[in-house]
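ok so i was messing around last nite and threw this chain in just to see what happens. nothing serious, just curious
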Amino acid sequence: MCASLHCRSDQGEARRAAGAGAAFMKIEKLIVEYLSRAITDVFSTMLGVDLGAGEISVENSAPEANDGVVSFIGLAGSWVGTGSLTCSPVMACRICEQMLMTETSAVNEEVLDAVAELTNMIVGSVKTELEKHLGPLGLSIPTVVFGRNFKTKSAGTNEWTVARFRWDGECLLVKLCLAPKERAAHAVYHSIPQVTGVEA
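result:
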């Protein structure tokens, strides 16, 4: 009798685990779709730029060296995570010029604000779409880093959805990591990733 009850319990756990895995895979596919659409829509609407087709992949992202501008933004709710946008100083200046209709030759506060706002709009658009499936999600204020030879690292090992686009020869990298809150209980995915080794 006990063995029979124990077996049913195991089967129930297995079914729940399988259901959770299927739900997670569904959300991952939606993130790929929503992120790609958000990037192209925001660039088209706010900058008047047609980025064309980009490359979307799902990766286990390791700390990597950066030279340029990186903007981070956190998400919180039933799922938690981090979104980021990385670009060269040249592209950051171009984003500012297109967004504010002004000329900019070097990265300054206006340029960093423009990149932060672009990140907010892209990740915010993804958040709005995901809320139809995940319920309310919160969005933090973006943090922007500008420097040379620095690395960023987020706690945990969750997979990142990575979108790569090119604009006039410059590379745009947008990344999003999102996981169920209970899965992220031992890793603070909604915090701003650690930044090390910044050079002026």
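not much to say yet. Residues 162 and 175 are 4 Å apart (CA to CA).
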